[in-house]
Design a protein that fits this description.
The complex is a heterodimer of chains A (238) and B (600). Chain A has 238 residues and is of the alpha+beta class. Chain A has 6 helices and 9 strands. With 600 residues, chain B is α/β, with parallel strands linked by helices. In chain B, helix 3 (42-52) packs across helix 4. Classes of the chains: A alpha+beta (238), B alpha/beta (600).
Amino acid sequence: MSKTFTLDGKTVPFTDGQTIIQAAQAADVYIPHLCYHPEFKPHGSCKLCTVKVNGRQTASCTMRAAEGMVVESDIEELNAERRALTQMLFVEGNHFCPSCEKSGDCQLQATAYQLGMMTTHFDHFFPNRPLDASHEKFLLDFNRCILCSLCVRASRDVDGKNVFALAGRGIKTHLIVNAASGKLADTDFTAQDKAAHVCPVGVILPKRRGFAVPIGERTFDKQPISAYVDTRLPAKDH
Amino acid sequence: MDVSDMDHASYLNPILQKYRHQPTHLMQILREAQECAGYIHPTAVEYLAAALQIPRTKIEGVASFYSFFYLEPRGKYRVLFSDNITDRMLGNTALMKQMCNQLWVEPDKVSEDGLVSVGMTSCTGMCDQGPALLVNNIAITRIDARRVDEICDLIRGQVPLMAWPQEYFLIEDNIRRKDLLLSDGLEPGMALAAALIRGPEGMLGELKASNLRGRGGAGFTTAIKWESCRNAPGTAHYVVCNADEGEPGTFKDRVLLASYADKVFEGMTLCGYVIGAKKGMLYLRGEYRYLLDHLESVLARRRRQNLLGEGILGTAGFDFDIEIHLGAGAYICGEESALIESLEGKRGTPRNRPPFPVTNGYLDQPTVVNNVETFASTCHIAQRGGAWYAGIGTGKSAGTKILSVSGDCERPGIYEYPFGVSVTQVLADCGAHDVQAVQVSGPSGVTVAPHEFERIIAFEDIPTAGAFMVFDRARDMFEVARNFVHFFAHESCGFCTPCRVGTSLLRNLMDKLHNGHGSPYDFSEIEKLNQLLLSMSHCGLGHTACNPVLDTIAKFRPAYERRMLHKSFSPAFDLDWSLQAARQMTGRDDSDAHLGVEQQ
């Protein structure tokens, strides 16, 4: 008899050590998220996956599931707050979807659609974030960075390289690369790195490949992000 | 010698040796490297990365997180004015302007000759003797126009800081009311001797009976913390004293460390005895750098007295020693898990909790983190017993509380009372008149209005970490809240979205009201942001960042309504203001260089 908790009224089984979002995804229930990725240690920073556990709000990517928990997720109160967080991420950086190569494959954009975000609402910060086009094969467009740290984790934990890191504090927090010059070309980054392929937005992009898949036929053009997430998960039933 | 020509190995090697090439000591290594070279030179970053076998991004990530680390030259003299609201009330803004004008330097920029930079920093904990500033991280108090003139002369004359008039560096205790903690009569070692007779379990029992609760603000029961840590399995246990007294308006830990350091260290040693720790660490805020030598000398004396080290007071197996870790300007490190990260040589980002430090703290081992005042209090419990201690104060708040009183009053300074003292009583004692409000426990605390002055300082009514800032009727409570909001935006660690972006949005909205573009729309926006910060933030900083605004809106609404100049939405964007840079570049400020009202 496996242990269970309830998520929006639905009974969800879990195994010891599983977080709420892991158990939810295994049960085909979508909880919005950006910095969470099933292959990496949870970070808990974007706060989109916040749920109510027995009435108290907490990030579902870091909270372990426990027997009998009553979890609420898909409720308007939380979705309104998630929408506001998504809007914050949009105004914090410079996100111009129509000209972005990642449009249609971008998790920030898809999450905004999922949450019914119609405008950015808040005043834009319009930060000045220079591009890094130094690398032969990859481009870094920091304008779109949402500080999820997935590339940091991938480079450190999978590639064993520490190519990326977060620097600065507060609203000045930003992504840096591991080189005295501060340029990607001077790091040991390669196209084969896991870190080259985990960016949920359009920061880390391969060069010389533009709009290979036309707009309208991209990942989230075909299905909402709530349906997509499961395909990233490791195979079930093992 | 120019830093660029320096042989970085020559000053870095002794530092690396002193800290045994341990990356956990990165903060101390960077601080000492900077004290040698004036800033953390790129070559030094490279050298340290290789020597410590850590990526350079880690060094850059850490150095750029803390306000007092510089990866670029900041001048031979680095002046930072304290910018708490109490400093503002004492005229720090005009004094900084005076200094900038005299030294021909723009705020936050380095002078062209590389000699000096002048800027603002968060509260430096000198509110009872402000306005205050830091020069190369050393505190100077009681700044006035004359002192600014003198300092400018000293800087221009390139007089070494060591040779500046000694009275500049005089920091007063200003103790106005003594009770238990600030009384004399507890000699070093007495509390330890008493605890040794009781044994660890006996001492823990007294602590339980005392009902002592943490003095850092949250008020967690100390005995439960110590017991949980004692019972938690681990390869080592640690004692950490949180002396990162960053809450604006708080300075009681400074006085405890300056004049009662033995009690603090003895309390830490007691904790080590109870939980079975061999190592304690005092995390001292960077603003209190001037206390470091004094504290090291107290530690050295205590080692000679056999109150630290091996076999304390002749008890075989009771080994305990204390290290001091200096912070580098980050309020967030007052949060216990961020503090532990910082102790480990990392960015001060609060951890995901649970697990809590009592089971997974420093180096993932069981760790007690307590406030300076909490540790000092345990000495009295060891000596005189828990039941006696529980009889002081109120039923739910045992013992005494030290208040740091500042702002509009005749006698700012340190006041120690048994818990249960009313706001009215404190105001009478410190000589405050015509009071409009008191900010208790700093920006993250509560704004108390006159109709509430009979409320008491106690966990069951107004809990506090110690700050008590008084505002008379001449003060604008909106500006008080705006100062606090700027503080939180500056100190947000940037880890979680709601706090990183939300505190800046809140700051912008408060500035919008300040700049005369406020409307009821902004009012509701502020309230919505407050709610979001409260419910979504990762840690207490975000949760409490809205307190000053919510409180002042509720209690001093006219101060906000005065700023509702527009009936409907007005944009924050101001075209005329945006032309400022162009005016500055062209050296013009005539009427044609401004947009008239009709042109807008």
